[in-house]
Amino acid sequence: MVTAAAGPDDRPASAWAPLRTAVYRNLWLALLAANVGTWMQTVGAQWLLIHHPNASTLVALVQTASLLPVLLLALPAGVLADNFDRRHLLIAVQLFLVAVAVALTLLTATNRMPPALLLTLTFAFGVGQALTLPAWAAVIPELVPQDQLRSASALGSISVNAARAVGPAVAGVLIARTGVAPVFALNALAFLIFAYALARWRPGNARAVEVPERFAAALRAGGRYVRHSPTVRRLLRRALVFVVPASALWALLPLVAERQLGLGSGGYGLLLAALGVGAVAGGLLLAAIRTRLSANQLLLIAGVLFTISLTVVATVRVVPLVLVALLPAGMAWVTVLANVNAEMQLFLPSWVRARGLAVYQVCFAGGQAVGALVWGLLADVAGLVLAYLAAAALMLVGTVTSQIWPLPDLRTVNRDPAAYWPQLHLAREPDPGVGPVLVTVQYVVRPERAQPFLAAMDVVRGARQRTGAMRWGLFRPAETTDRFVEVYLVPSWGEHLRQHGGRLTGEDREAEERARELTDGEPEVRHLVPAAAGPALRDDQEAV
Fold this sequence. Notes:
4 strands; elongated; 17 helices; disordered N terminus; single chain
């Protein structure tokens, strides 16, 4: 399923403004068709497995197979989207998805679709989705004016959830009347439409990248930023705490429809449609609700609502009551994920935003994939009711933790780019690939200011490590009482130039200024590059 990152809307009335741009409107409509086809394909794949032995595990594995590629490939896909022509990449991936959908259609129509092959092709479909996600998210700023980006993100969320409401219902009717093969055929057509819309789009100026990052270096830089950002880690944890128990609802719903409610494929589509309707309603109401409740209050309410929905689905056998219970579940789903996603967008600086959001997709998809497998296995062993009640209990525990470890308040955090380091004056300019580079900064600090300086430099350490430093340390020369030497190691000269040229933010600048206020005079900076070819640093064994 193709999604666009959701961001907060400033004014609900302007949510449809991007659709006035013809190119965006055409692509959005084509994307809506692709999302509808994706949900139809998911329902078709799950329904093919509903009567097989160990159906609980097999049905849950459909979700695992479709989401596992995002877990494995989201971050590399983000790097590809930053280093290749995004339009060409998207077109190639959509044509690959068309080929997978055609194979699903032909094999299903000829009764040559065993469960293992179905899951393999579902995995291949997930690979295409994983490659699409970051490229499409990165393309949106090229399609609409800057002041409409948040509205465009909201429209992406509406597209996904409208497809969730329509796709399963259409698939259920088709499966009941014509079988599963036509569902897969329509999915192929949907992605062909999206590829055609992309081919018709002719972007203006090509993107310019001054110093493209090498693939491996870009991967490491994205991982380094997340690893050394407590705020990003907190947001990722909040997403996982919700998604893992929530995945039980999606993974086991076909079995609830068939075993507990006695519904056919059309009834299952109706259950998914109820979830989609609730999600669309939640997306439309979210902007108004945000003005009355804080993000953490929204998390608490959404978690409680989802817990109640899981409990009702597990214990109630009356179809209308289950449908009603699924509406708030859809609303809660959008509320939690839209809030976490918006906080990620607001916090991540532009240079690492695609990779940071890719890590978010890894956690989101990984939580769903692993959760679906766990709940499927538990349902096979202990039954559907116990699996759902266990998920409800875990959801309630996670909801309580939202009050212990709340979402960070980013309203006063300055995330604007800030290239404030002084211009380099060098005797010779090293090659960008030279490295590692050892940077030393010597400060003069009066003894009575030493402790506040150490505390301020701990914040600076985080900025250094997020923007490129592999190692960091703060030392005091034994010969003096008023000197501190900051030392950090950067992988290459090109990486250090990127620190100078756009990786730092206003928050980083404020942290450095707080530390500098405790020093006397200007710090003395040195850049040490390898003196000769070969390893610049050796351990004891290499030296011997």
